[in-house]
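step: validate -> pass
step: tokenize input -> pass
step: predict -> running
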Amino acid sequence: MIVRGLILLTGALFLAGCGAFHSPEPEAGGPAVLGSGKNAPASGGPALHATIPAPAVPPELKARAGASSQTRGDDGRLYSYTLDVQSPEDPELADAFEKVSRLALMKDQPATMTTLEQRLNVSLEEARSLLKSRGYYEGTVEGRLTAEGADKARAVFSFRSGPRYSLGPSRIILDGALAGESEAPAPPRTLAEVGLTPGGPALADEVLAAVSRVEDAFRNRGYPLAAVEGARYTVDRAKRSLEAEIQVKPGRFARMGEVLPVDGATVDQGYLDALRPWAVGQPWHQEQLDNYLGALRQTGLFQSVEAFPASENDPRGYRPISVKLVGAPERTVGGLLSYDTDFGPGLTAYWEHRNLTGHGDRLRLDLPLWADMQEFTATYRYPYFLGPDQDIVARGGFLHQDTDAYELSSGAAAVGLERRLSRRLTVSLMGSVEGGSLRDPDQDKKEFIMFGLPAAVNYDSTGSLLDPTRGLRLMLQAAPYTGSFHQDFNVFRSRLEAQGFVPLGSDDRFVLALRGVWGSLWGVDNSQTVPSALRFYSGGGGSVRGYDYQSVGPRNEKLEPLGGVSQVELGAEARWRFLTDMGLVAFIDGGMVYENVDEKIFQNMLWGAGLGYRYYTAIGPVRLDVAFPLDKRPDDDDWQLYLSLGQSF
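step: predict -> pass
step: emit ->
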């Protein structure tokens, strides 16, 4: 219906005087004035923003249709019909007509011959409007309706598009002076300055889109109240071109001022100012204000966000922006149940406060509990520190793990800066400390402490954390560490992970997901000389499914994992989402951890494969995977089961 409305609208704009509305035909070779807005020259027609009446069959067409049906001897029988549209010169005309015409839209509704004649005549008017909207001002269309049997009919339309008209010169006429023009970027004076190239096809939707951009261009160059008042379009048949004159009322020039919260905002002024993308005193820029409102909405701190220019300028002559904010609940408590063959059943509980001190700062407490692993983590984020794109991040917590690979009890803390270089690219640098006790296989428990300076670069173009369907993720981590375990050590640890998501179709129902990981420790020959937090492990639900947790890699005589100094992992998933909330997945994973730095990667890799089921919820898919080891070792189980929230990657 939107496309159909656009065709009717453009028909009214482009052909108020060319036959579709029965206006006189212009003299041969002379220009035809198609329409003008209010306050335009007196030769006008409908205004650009005038309300176009709903389509109706003209009385003479109704009479003609009635007479035709009488000659056919219409006896009230209902006819179903087929629609045959022919447009050899421009096949896109036929495609567009079959999507928007009355006969096409009501094709599944049988009707009497009288009603079908009426639909035919309305569709002919729609076809003529379609020709004009696509720049065919000399085009013609013929339509006929024939009965084919007792209850069958056939509607045939034949388009002869003729030459396509091009875009001629355009002008933007100002209704009022541009006060402050010398202090701001000059607004556009032609449609070419907003992306409509002269000489191109005279397509109605492109012309109207350019006209809509005129208003935005003025509002982004110092004129917040600019408005398009009307438009006048002229067809020059001698040149076979369409010319346009757009009338704009620019309003008063303004400069952007401070943000003024109203109705008791729940965040402090510093938070609101840090998000502000404009400099106080710059010419008005509506797009920056719209982006500001979008950033406020994305914080999750507000149920609603509104902004409007203040009624008066401040003493400096700047126009403040009043912002009305309605706060959202700031605290959340939740939990998650999960299960996999490695750990058995598990519970994760969390508590979050999203506006702890009134600056939009967040404190989150997480408590994952498993039979063999217990952890408590606190994460604090203070946003917009010394700039709108920089946060302070602090983490701390305690961890106890008792696995086949080691028994660990430790405490850790880290603090640093995270900076957003763009919407997709983030970098961070932190200082960290971790210490505790660690018992490796065949060794006594040993105390350790280490200090690090981890840096990270993250790129994410997927737009979804738990269920990406397209885009790319790159995660690079690199850090020097120093500390003491069995002896003093100094190492450099690096890890790179890449994930790609490719939709196999236009509706994202089929997605191919790919994953690769490479990691290495530099400056150490044997992984047992550094704490387990620095070693590489693989196997389990987050890496190579089908094998026990941390079991892919070097092991001792008791088959206990030792960890390694380098790592490689590969994975692929074919995801199929059917119905609305269900999906199936086929996957294959491979990987290996290497004990010595001189071992070549990709050698002796272990592979696992399996099938998964997804149940899609509002917060993300629930994942159930069954995986089988393809390189089964004597102690490997026949299968592994994983249940959690979110895709595997």
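step: describe -> Residues 113-133 form the longest helix (21 residues).
step: cleanup -> pass
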